[in-house]
Amino acid sequence: MSSNTTDNTGYKSYLEEDGGRKGIFKWILSTDHKRIGLLYLYAMMGWFCIGVVLGLLMKLELIAPGKTLMEAQAYNATFTVHGVIMIFLIVIPGLPAVFGNFMLPIQIGAKDVAFPRLNLFSWYIYILGGILVIISLFGNGPPDTGWTFYAPYSFKTGTNMLPAALGAFVLGFSSILTGLNFIVTIHRMRAPGMTWFKMPLFTWTLYGTAWIQLLATPIIGITLLMVAGERILGIGFFDPAKGGDPLLYQHLFWIYSHPAVYIMILPAMGVISEIIPTFAKKTIFGYKAIVLSTLAIAFVGYFVWGHHMYTSGMSGTALWAFSLLTFIVAIPSAIKVFNWISTMHKGSISTEVPFLWAASFIFIFMIGGLTGLVLGSLATNVHVHDTAFVVAHFHFIVFGGVGFAFFGAIHYWFPKMFGRKYDPSWARTGWITFFIGFVTLYGPMFYLGVKGMPRRYYDYLDEFHGPNIISTMGALIMVTGFLIILVNLIKSARHGEKTTEMNPWGGTNLEWQVPTPPPLENFDEIPVIDKAPYKYD
Amino acid sequence: MTETIAHHDEHRDDEASKLGIWLFIFTELLLFGGLFVTYAVYRHAHPQAFHMAAQQLDVVIGTINTVILLISSMTIAMATTAIQKKDKRTTLILIVITLVLALVFLINKYFEWGAKIDHGIYPGSPLLEELGSGDTLFFGLYFFMTGLHALHIIIGMVLIAVILVRVRKGKITFDNFQLLENGGLYWHLVDLIWIFLFPLLYLIT
Predict the structure, then answer these.
(1) Chain B contact present for A218, CB below 8 A
(2) Which stretches within A301-387 are classed as H helix?
(3) pLDDT reported for residue A6
(4) CATH class of the domain comprising A26-512
(5) Is the separation of the CB atoms in A180 and B21 below 8 Å?
(6) What's the pLDDT at B205?
(7) Domains and CATH numbers, chain B
(8) Chain centroid to CA A531: how far?
(9) In chain B, % of residues over pLDDT 90
(10) How far apart are CA A224 and CA A222, in angstroms?
(11) What is the C-alpha separation between A352 and A344, in angstroms, rounded?
(12) pLDDT confidence of residue A350
């Protein structure tokens, strides 16, 4: 097809194809992977707003020492619910559930995922998990254990932690089934000619992620069930009074929850690997290196969980082994950064909004990654363990990583998904405000952590006051930026200028060769792939 | 993992659904894997108490249940063969036998658990508290592992019941039997997990 726009006569996009259903049923009964992706997007947007409000409340509490807004118990509940929502309902499903669902089948030239009904079912499980989290807020008060549900406190607390833990368990199921679906889809449904090393990089990272989802999530499932057994039956697995070992809980928890960090970050790296070549108009540098480093991260990521437990009590040998492995897992991440930078080198870069997000992702991700090494080495870890430093590092990696990639992804694929354009100048304003707010919010927390301010307290010593004020100001700026982005996107999705331009950015993958917005089954004829990805002639 | 590319025009892809069920079986193994790790850790910590506590379990009833499950695995496998030979009647009989065996397994389990609970051995019981941490952990694991396994038996039974209905209605036939085969694979998994639970809990004393 030579023209860049879609011929409109008789064409029906997936948004117009309603399957004979009306109103909301067009969405919640549809097995179209694109609609399911959007269902996840809308649910997550709602959750994210709640999570942001909770985060902002914490920063407002910390604007001055002593009680500002809430007492200790309310603060404990706030950081717990903030963590549970942000981790289990947003960043873990995040990119795979929204953009993976929408783009994966298109990127490999398939009409849908392998099991479309299972895909919709996964969304329902996701919603059920969310409902359980909501239930935990009532009754005896919201959980106050932190999102990690550490034993023995998690079965001793009088608060309503059981529904939250079961919610996380149920959400794990959703994650497993999505991962399973993606693996089978990638194995079975690639278009003719799309060999493994012709797959787009976002698809590759989804593949690595899907394996982690599949193989790591059951461990947290069984662990949370054991905590439930502890709470309901007093079974004694993690109760020191009955001979149980709380440390075992920590091991089991992190055997999942560390790989979960890679569930979050790998697809983010995939998004960045899509955006950068498109806006540098240059073939990605070291395609195979990116693929192999993705698989290396997915693999080595299983063996580093102990670095969350340096101060919990492990043998010296275990400590240095985990430290060494942690340093090793940093290597493939760094390889990717070099690849992105080299791709940009001598490219003809256009600084459109998605590129701005991708470039700032690299900046934020490097700060997060390098401070991760501070935490990964034993001696420095002991100094900053459980301080604001950890919170800063974590948010730079997880929020900076997934969040920036998510906003990059939505600005990149928005015209394709909705068939409308967004306002680029508002999008830029939102980005710069968000970026400045982000750095101002989390930057001072590195300093506070090194100076010894512990995390998870509603109060602090007077000497920490100054940086905390800066940090709270940063939070306000960042939330302003977020609102600008959100309002701009919602307005554009509803009333933005319509577009049928197939390839607005000049991307090379298959999603840019289908009509905008794509038709119900993506392709009239399954394409035949005969060239390597990211080729610019 | 095959490299073949599926035909996009047909909606059915048996290879895909088989791959799907195998991946799901991996996750189930890992789910129990967490419990096996816990077992290993606590057995190492309390070898003597685990030794004594394991002798309290009824090896006879455990052996009977093992044999029952092994036979039921055989019958469901035979059902998959029978349907390929277009023998619907035998298929149905074999599936019903599988279901009955599963039910017998659960009944045995009910009496076994009942006897333990009658003796005051159940999670959080005062007797276990008296006996000490080794026994508490052993019986905690016993109830948790066999309980979770029994839950899998029930899920498997529901799945096989669905398959039974579909065979009767003629939805599962000699050239479209992937669901039956997948149900069989799942049932073998349930069987396999028991094959590990049985020696760990009953035989190693």
Answers:
(1) yes
(2) 316-344, 353-376, 378-384
(3) 54
(4) mainly alpha
(5) no
(6) 75
(7) 15-203 (1.20.120.80)
(8) 31
(9) 88
(10) 6
(11) 14
(12) 94
